């Protein structure tokens, strides 16, 4: 594993534990010679993890749409910064440049990015590992909701297991490095004469 795409907030959040989690993840990645790929901003947790990776001597590649260069304050000190035309190109390039994905705490943009690559994995469009860095129990509600989705038969357990999670960065990175893809085809219910079969 040479690079991990990190999805995270453009805010630092309500507690300093989130920034500390970002710094610990940066250290774990640099210690494992894993480069950072992320959204290219210099604000919030995005800026924290990029700054720490660079401070520790690691590589950080940002991908940012031209329209967000001012809003997200594009980071000027990265190893590489790709400026792209829109969010679709941003997400596609981030995925292409990465060997795995981690979602740190963040808002709806972070969740949207996470669920897109998670859906791609479920559909078999890629076989890269995906993880949640569950700092301070941030993702407990989401993990519980996915169990509810399984119980309601909209998701199979093996598909849910495509998304791993841990509270500590070192444990999560180890899980991503140990990941071995397995085929879990998305199933579709057929409706015949008003009955689901």
From TrEMBL:
Gene3D superfamilies, alphabetized = 3.40.50.450
- TM segment ranges: none
- Keywords for this entry? Cytokinin biosynthesis, Hydrolase
> EC number(s) of the enzyme?
3.2.2.n1
Instruction: Name the catalysed reactions.
Output: AMP + H2O = D-ribose 5-phosphate + adenine
Recorded superkingdom: Bacteria
Query: What family does the database annotate?
Result: Belongs to the LOG family.
NCBIfam families attached to this UniProt entry? Rossman fold protein, TIGR00730 family
Protein name (Swiss-Prot/TrEMBL): Cytokinin riboside 5'-monophosphate phosphoribohydrolase
């Amino acid at each position: 594993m040479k690079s991990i795409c990190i999805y995270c907030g453009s805010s630092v959040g309500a507690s300093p534990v989130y920034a500390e989690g970002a710094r610990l993840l940066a250290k774990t990645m640099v210690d494992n010679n894993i480069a950072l790929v992320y959204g290219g901003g210099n604000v919030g947790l995005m800026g924290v993890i990029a700054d720490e990776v660079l401070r520790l001597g690691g590589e950080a590649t940002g991908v940012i749409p031209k329209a967000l260069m001012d809003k997200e304050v594009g980071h000027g000190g990265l190893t590489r910064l790709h400026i792209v035309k829109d969010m679709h190109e941003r997400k596609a390039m981030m995925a292409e440049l990465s060997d795995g994905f981690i979602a740190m705490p963040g808002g709806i943009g972070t969740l949207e990015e996470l669920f897109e690559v998670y859906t791609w994995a479920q559909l078999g469009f890629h076989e890269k590992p995906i993880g949640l860095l569950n700092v301070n129990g941030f993702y407990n509600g989401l993990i519980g909701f996915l169990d509810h989705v399984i119980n309601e038969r909209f998701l199979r357990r093996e598909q849910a297991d495509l998304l791993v999670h841990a509270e500590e960065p070192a444990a999560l990175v180890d899980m991503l490095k140990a990941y071995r893809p397995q085929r879990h085809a998305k199933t579709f219910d057929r409706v015949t004469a008003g009955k689901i079969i």
